[in-house]
């Protein structure tokens, strides 16, 4: 069983008291425990079982405007005492920074929202094995599937965040993940693809057979890919790739990138950075949402933010430190976004495919090719050539490139948004990008 | 060396008994104990932004039967915790009926000293250098708009207890010093990053004014990029500079030669042993035995001494990199390549320092031979799909080559290629092999481990450059 609230609170208050006694003026402590149990299958047989029990504590001590932090997985009192002494000593020797502080008291969350993020259900390893057997049977039906690997993970976590201003809150969360990776082979090529289902609640996990079949279908259709010539062409991003564009956007509007001046979106508040059909929302209070939370990693209450309204940038993602630097209040986004998504566009998926006589449908990108300082974007890609709305043949060994400033302005969305991940996008089209091929 | 049982309610001999008892009918397995201490001191935006100290303690208990691995880890080294883990492993491997392989090779050679770099320098002296870095770069040129610099250091002590009570230990220091600088000129912003590191004390990298070289190099890369024009798009010849660009070797073929992918036949190389996979003159080794290098290990994370493994010799595929499990199933021996990020993770066959050895040509000859192409000097990260063999990496410093001469710098672009065929496209191998500065971290299955790379300049006949200029 994952450690209970009382155990975690005791550890936190021990640290708060000791740090105060040793001279800290402000203190913040995060203590957590997570237990996960994983079963992996390969080619219809058990491959690995893994139980992981993780304890962790992070302590930040302030002496006036001086700050330092420690973290440890060893929660024995004796060890915590040594670490806190060391932390205080380091704090004393660290130069002051006028922006260092705990969050403003009036911004702290005063409740833990009931968002149904914890499911007490436990699935025994034998049941995981049974689920994975059905999954792999479905995944390996086609003779061309030569390897299957799948896994089932159950994770239960609990944490307490406490600070010397009296904040002390935390809650349990759970997650269940079923996934399948398949490899298909024909005489010309070998390809791999995947499918997974991640939920807070066990009963919401996708059906094993559907998941296995989906992974196999996605892989089989990639066989015998071709390489196309270099050209300017409209690119359609599959939903699971399109969400990556939102993550790039999120890192470019983080208050740390803005305050340091290392983002191409610096000083763009109230400017039109997307076309007026685009709306981006970050909503922390979705029931069972994979990114849902009551407060951020500093204890600041997180409310829904309409980050982009009709193409216009309305908010940065602000934490306490960078907020003070920018003279803005924290909006509860220390640690990043919650449930981040594009609102639906007005076009159907089919109409989007048909909007150009020829386009590329991208299902996977590789490489870290987004530069948020300059906005330059260049990644490796695989996908399909689409002509007159029809998938013609698979494509690989190409790159797609552009600049994020132009890409955002040219971005259009279908109306097929679903909440499968913590960051979600409808199918996306960007015109005017350059493909490099043969 | 850590005594893991000193403050525990379980004695070493009791722990040994649990290990032997749990692994009785297994083919392999061990109790892996780890105690690591690490620190990061970060200067950013003119201030010391972060001084963090971490201490991590835990164990990972592994039992292997045939192809099946059972693993359990915890932070609490206690009677209860070990027993629970043992029960867990036994219940997964109920039907285990193997014979434990007690033999493990031994060596007395060490490739780094058992030092603790964290204690060798005071906090104040580290803060002092970071402040000097900041002042030096900001005074150098008024287009410097942002400077980020950090020290990170680690000491990791491990102990491996095998069935029968055999114990193997290692103490691993690791440090890194990094500088990132952003320049702004005429509304354009570009960054340059450079760093150094290895399994040594901070002082071996930062004697006198050595840190200035790191600053100068980061500044030089950023300045070059300020003048860069859009990169070309399409297939062309590529000359790679020596040193760090060897991450091409790491991504393009290194991962494909790891034992697990070949046992599972998911690597594009699995049926190519003994065959020609590279041009003549191409020899690639994976070496864990270089003194003080980031990717070096005295023993791997299963206790096997590391070695210099020849992967490709004069174009012919000779060996895969193996841990004990994949070696046993493929009926070969471990190459000392079994690694894990820490006690939370299972062992996988991984690279150490992956190197292409020198040939005979000069870089000048290569450039001269190219009518239209690019010269790539430095890279950010890379990635590979080992099944299709397609790999990418991102240039952070590159130039166009026109009619045998180096031309303007070009913007950061992704290069994409095909692993199994790329080495057959290598038409010249330089005489200037260089090691990288000690900055690489390789990711696989969610685990990051420190690695090194090395290569001479090479000429590749054909690669796709992912620019925007058609």
Topology, pairings included?
The complex is a heterodimer of chains A (438) and B (470).
Chain A (H helix, E strand, L loop, with lengths): L4 H17 L4 E17 L2 E19 L2 E7 L4 H17 L31 H15 L5 E19 L4 E2 L2 E14 L4 E10 L8 H13 L10 E7 L1 H14 L2 H6 L19 E3 L22 E5 L2 E2 L6 H7 L13 E3 L6 H6 L3 E9 L9 E12 L2 E14 H6 L1 E3 L9 E2 L3 E9 L2
Parallel strand pairs in A: 8-13, 12-17
Antiparallel strand pairs in A: 1-2, 1-4, 2-3, 4-5, 4-6, 6-7, 8-18, 9-10, 9-12, 10-11, 13-14, 14-15, 15-18, 16-18
Helix pairs in contact in A: 1-2, 3-4
Chain B lengths: L11 H11 L5 E17 L2 E19 L2 E7 L4 H14 L30 H18 L3 E19 L4 E19 L2 E11 L11 H17 L6 E8 L6 H8 L4 H5 L20 E4 L20 E6 L2 E2 L6 H6 L8 E2 L8 E2 L3 E4 L6 H6 L3 E13 L5 E13 L2 E6 L3 E5 H4 L3 E4 L4 E2 L4 E5 L2 E9 L2 E9 L4
Parallel strand pairs in B: 7-14, 13-21
Antiparallel strand pairs in B: 1-2, 1-4, 2-3, 4-5, 5-6, 7-22, 8-9, 8-13, 9-10, 11-12, 14-15, 15-16, 15-17, 17-22, 18-22, 19-21, 20-21
Which structural class is indicated by helix and strand composition of chain A? alpha+beta
What number of domains of chain B?
Answer: 2
Largest sheet of chain B: 7 strands, mixed
Helix content of chain B: 10-25%
Strand content of chain A: 35-45%
| Secondary structure: number of strands of chain B | 22
Protein described:
The complex is a heterodimer of chains A (438) and B (470). Chain A has helices at 5-21, 77-93, 125-139, 208-220, 239-252, 255-260, 320-326, 349-354, 404-409; strands at residues 26-42, 45-63, 66-72, 145-163, 168-169, 172-185, 190-199, 231-237, 280-282, 305-309, 312-313, 340-342, 358-366, 376-387, 390-403, 411-413, 423-424, 428-436. Chain A is α+β, with helices and mostly antiparallel strands. Chain A has 2 domains: 5-220, 2-Layer Sandwich (PmbA/TldD fold); 231-244 and 344-436, no CATH class. With 470 residues, chain B is α+β, with helices and mostly antiparallel strands. In chain B, 19% of the residues lie in helices and 40% in strands. Chain B has 9 helices and 22 strands. In chain B, strands 8, 9, 10, 13, 19, 20 and 21 form a 7-stranded mixed beta sheet that branches. A 6-stranded antiparallel beta sheet of chain B has the order 3-2-1-4-5-6. In chain B, a hairpin with a 2-residue loop joins strand 1 and strand 2 (47-65). Classes of the chains: A alpha+beta (438), B alpha+beta (470). At the A-B interface, strand 2, strand 3, helix 2, strand 7 and strand 14 of A face strand 2, strand 3, helix 2, helix 3 and strand 6 of B.
């Amino acid at each position: 069983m994952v450690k209970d609230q009382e155990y975690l609170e005791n550890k936190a208050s021990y640290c708060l008291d000791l740090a105060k006694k040793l001279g800290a003026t402000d203190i913040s402590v995060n203590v957590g425990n997570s237990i996960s149990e994983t079963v992996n299958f390969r080619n219809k047989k058990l491959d690995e079982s893994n139980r992981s029990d993780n304890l962790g504590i992070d302590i930040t001590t302030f002496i006036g405007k001086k700050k330092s932090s420690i973290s440890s997985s060893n929660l024995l009192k004796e060890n915590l005492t040594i670490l806190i002494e060391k932390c205080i000593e380091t704090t004393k020797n660290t130069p002051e920074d006028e922006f260092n502080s705990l969050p403003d008291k009036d911004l702290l969350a005063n409740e833990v929202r009931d968002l149904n993020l914890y499911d007490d259900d436990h699935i025994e390893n034998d049941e995981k094995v049974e689920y994975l057997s059905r999954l792999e049977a479905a995944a390996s039906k086609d003779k061309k599937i030569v390897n299957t690997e799948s896994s089932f993970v159950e994770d239960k976590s609990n944490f307490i965040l406490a600070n010397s201003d009296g904040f002390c809150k935390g809650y349990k969360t759970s997650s269940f993940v079923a996934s399948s990776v398949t490899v298909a082979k024909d005489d010309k090529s070998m390809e791999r693809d995947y499918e997974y289902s991640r939920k807070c609640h066990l009963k919401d996990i996708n059906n094993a057979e559907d998941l296995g079949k989906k992974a196999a279908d996605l892989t089989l259709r990639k066989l015998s890919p071709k390489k196309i010539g270099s050209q300017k062409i409209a690119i359609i991003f599959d939903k699971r790739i399109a969400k990556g564009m939102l993550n790039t956007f999120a890192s470019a509007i983080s208050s740390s990138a803005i305050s340091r001046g290392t983002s191409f979106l610096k000083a763009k508040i109230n400017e039109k950075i997307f076309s007026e059909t685009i709306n981006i929302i970050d909503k922390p209070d979705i029931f069972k949402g994979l990114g849902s939370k009551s407060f951020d990693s500093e204890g600041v209450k997180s409310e829904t933010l309409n980050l982009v309204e009709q193409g216009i940038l309305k908010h940065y993602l602000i934490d306490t430190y960078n907020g003070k630097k920018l003279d803005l209040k924290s909006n509860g986004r220390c640690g990043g976004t919650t449930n981040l998504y594009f609102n639906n566009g007005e076009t159907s998926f089919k109409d989007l495919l048909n909007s150009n006589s020829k386009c590329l449908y991208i299902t996977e990108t590789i490489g870290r090719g987004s530069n948020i300082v300059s906005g330059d974007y260049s990644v490796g890609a695989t996908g399909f050539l689409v002509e007159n709305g029809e998938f013609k043949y698979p494509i690989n060994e190409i790159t797609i490139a552009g600049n994020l400033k132009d890409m955002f302005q040219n971005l259009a969305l279908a109306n097929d948004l679903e909440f499968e991940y913590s960051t979600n996008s409808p199918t996306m089209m960007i015109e005017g990008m350059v493909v490099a091929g043969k | 060396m850590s005594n893991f049982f000193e403050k525990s309610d379980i004695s070493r001999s009791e722990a040994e008994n649990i290990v032997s008892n749990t692994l009785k009918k297994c083919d392999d397995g061990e109790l892996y104990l780890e105690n690591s201490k690490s620190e990061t001191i970060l200067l950013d935006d003119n201030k010391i932004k972060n001084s963090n100290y971490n201490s991590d303690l835990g164990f990972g208990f592994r039992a292997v039967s045939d192809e099946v691995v059972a693993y359990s880890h915890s932070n609490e080294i206690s009677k209860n915790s070990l027993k629970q883990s043992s029960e867990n492993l036994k219940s997964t491997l109920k039907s285990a009926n193997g014979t434990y392989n007690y033999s493990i090779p031994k060596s007395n050679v060490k490739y780094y000293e058992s030092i603790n770099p964290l204690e060798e320098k005071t906090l104040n002296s580290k803060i002092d250098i970071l402040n000097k870095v900041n002042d030096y770069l900001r005074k150098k040129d008024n287009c410097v708009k942002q400077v980020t610099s950090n020290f990170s250091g680690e000491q990791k002590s491990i102990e491996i207890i095998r069935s029968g009570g055999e114990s193997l230990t290692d103490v691993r220091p690791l440090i890194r010093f990094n500088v990132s600088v952003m320049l702004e000129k005429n509304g354009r912003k570009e960054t340059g990053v450079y760093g150094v590191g290895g399994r040594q004390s901070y002082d071996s990298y930062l004697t006198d004014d050595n840190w200035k070289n790191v600053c100068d190099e980061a500044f030089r890369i950023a300045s070059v990029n300020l003048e860069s024009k859009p990169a070309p798009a399409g297939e062309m010849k590529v000359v790679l500079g020596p040193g760090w660009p060897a991450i091409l070797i790491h991504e393009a073929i290194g991962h494909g030669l790891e034992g697990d992918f070949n046992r599972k036949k998911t690597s594009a190389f699995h049926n190519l042993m003994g065959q020609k996979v590279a041009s003549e003159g191409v020899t690639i080794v994976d070496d864990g035995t270089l003194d003080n290098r980031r990717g070096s290990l005295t023993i791997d994370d299963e206790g096997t001494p590391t070695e210099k493994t020849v992967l490709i010799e004069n174009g012919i595929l000779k060996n895969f990199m193996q841990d004990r499990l994949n070696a046993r199933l493929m009926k070969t021996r471990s190459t000392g390549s079994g690694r894990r990020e820490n006690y939370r993770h299972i062992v996988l066959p991984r690279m150490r320092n992956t190197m292409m050895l020198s040939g005979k040509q000069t870089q000048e000859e290569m450039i001269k031979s190219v009518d239209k192409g690019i010269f790539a000097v430095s890279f950010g990260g890379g990635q590979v799909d080992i099944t299709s063999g397609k790999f990418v990496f991102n240039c952070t410093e590159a130039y166009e080559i026109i009619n045998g001469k180096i031309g303007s710098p070009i913007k950061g672009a992704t290069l994409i290629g095909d692993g199994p065929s790329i080495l057959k496209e290598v038409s010249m191998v330089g005489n200037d092999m260089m090691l990288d500065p000690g900055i690489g971290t390789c990711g696989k299955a969610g685990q990051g481990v420190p690695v090194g790379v090395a290569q001479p300049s090479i000429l590749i006949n054909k690669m796709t450059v992912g620019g925007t200029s058609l």
